[in-house]
Design brief:
250 residues, alpha/beta, Rossmann fold, six-stranded parallel β-sheet, 11 helices, binds guanosine-5'-diphosphate, binds magnesium ion
C-alpha cells in the first residue's frame, strides 16, 4: 500500500509548488522516492515531472477549442472528462515503484471538493493506499482569530466530504508577519476568539474550536513556505504520524 498525500486548496494557495517542494524534500532528507500525479487539466507548466499526468487524457485548452467553451466552462467540462479516467490512473499508480505519492489537484478547489471529482478520486485510490488530504490556505486569509476557525472548519469540511484524514496548513509563511501563536496554541486561539468574537458568530466559533479540540482535530497548523522549505519537516512528521498509526507504513 502507498502513502498518498493529496494537496487541496484555493487557486493560487500553492498546491503545485508544495507538491514539488515536499517531493524534493522527501528525496533530499529521507531518500524516499516520490511519484507525482498531476490532476489539473488546466495546468500549464509544472515545477515537477509528473509520473502520471491527467493532461495525457484531457486538457482544458483542447476542451475550450473542441466544445467552443470559455475558460470556466472548459475547466468544468475537462474535470468531468478527467473523472472517467480516474480508475485507469489509480491502476497505473498502484504499479509505480515509489512508496510516496504526491497528488496535485485542479487549480480551483471547489471543482475537486464540491463536485464528483474528489469523492471519485477517493473511491478509486482507496485500493491503492492510505490517503491524507493537506488543505492549504494563504496566510493573508487568516489574519484574525476567527479566520483560523474558518481554516479549521474548512479542513473538517474537506475531511467530511472526502472521508479521509486532513491536515490544515498555512503556506507562504515567508510573505507575512502575523500572530503565528494562533496556529499553534489552541488555548490562546480560543481566548482570542472569546475576546474578539461578537454575538452569536463569536459563540459559534468558540463552540467549533471546542468541538475540534475534543476530537483532537486540526490541533496544530504547520506554517510552511513551499518556496523556502520552512515547515516541510513539521508537515512530514505529521503525515508520518498518521501513516504510521493508520496506514501500512513499512
Ligand atoms: N512567496 C511564496 N510564494 C509561493 C509559495 N508557494 C507558492 N507560491 C507562489 O504562489 C503562486 C501560486 O502557486 P501554485 O503552486 O501555482 O498554486 P496552486 O494554484 O494552488 O497550484 C505561484 O506564483 C507560486 O510561485 C510560498 O511558499 N511563498
Ligand atoms: Mg496548481
Amino acid at each position: 500500500m502507498k502513502n498518498i498525500v493529496l494537496f487541496i486548496g484555493p487557486a493560487g494557495s500553492g498546491k503545485t509548488t508544495l507538491t514539488a517542494s515536499l517531493g524534493r524534500w522527501l528525496w533530499s532528507k529521507m531518500l524516499t522516492p516520490t511519484a507525482y500525479i498531476n490532476l489539473d487539466p488546466g495546468a500549464e507548466s509544472l515545477p515537477y515531472k509528473p509520473d502520471i499526468d491527467i493532461r495525457q487524457y484531457v486538457t482544458t485548452e483542447k476542451v475550450m477549442r473542441e466544445y467552443g467553451l470559455g475558460p470556466n466552462g472548459a475547466l468544468i467540462k475537462s474535470i468531468e472528462i478527467a473523472c472517467s479516467y480516474l480508475r485507469e490512473i489509480a491502476e497505473r499508480t498502484s504499479k509505480l515503484p515509489a512508496p510516496y505519492i504526491l497528488v496535485d489537484t485542479p487549480g480551483q478547489m471547489e471543482l475537486f471538493l464540491f463536485r464528483e471529482f474528489g469523492p471519485r478520486f477517493i473511491r478509486e485510490f482507496k485500493q491503492v493506499g492510505y490517503i491524507i488530504g493537506v488543505v492549504i490556505l494563504d496566510p493573508t486569509l487568516t489574519r484574525k482569530a476567527q479566520d483560523v476557525t474558518s481554516l479549521k472548519l474548512l479542513s473538517l469540511i474537506a475531511s467530511l466530504r472526502l472521508g479521509v484524514d486532513v491536515i490544515p496548513v498555512i503556506n507562504k509563511a515567508d510573505l507575512v508577519e502575523g500572530d503565528f501563536r494562533l496556529f499553534k496554541d489552541n488555548e490562546y486561539l480560543r481566548l482570542k476568539v472569546r475576546e474578539t468574537g461578537e454575538g452569536i458568530i463569536g459563540e459559534i466559533s468558540e463552540r467549533i474550536l471546542e468541538l475540534l479540540d475534543d476530537y483532537k482535530l486540526a490541533t496544530r497548523i504547520p506554517l510552511l513556505s513551499a518556496t523556502t522549505g520552512v515547515g516541510l519537516e513539521e508537515l512530514y512528521d505529521m503525515l508520518h504520524e498518521i501513516f504510521c498509526a493508520c496506514g501500512d507504513l513499512t
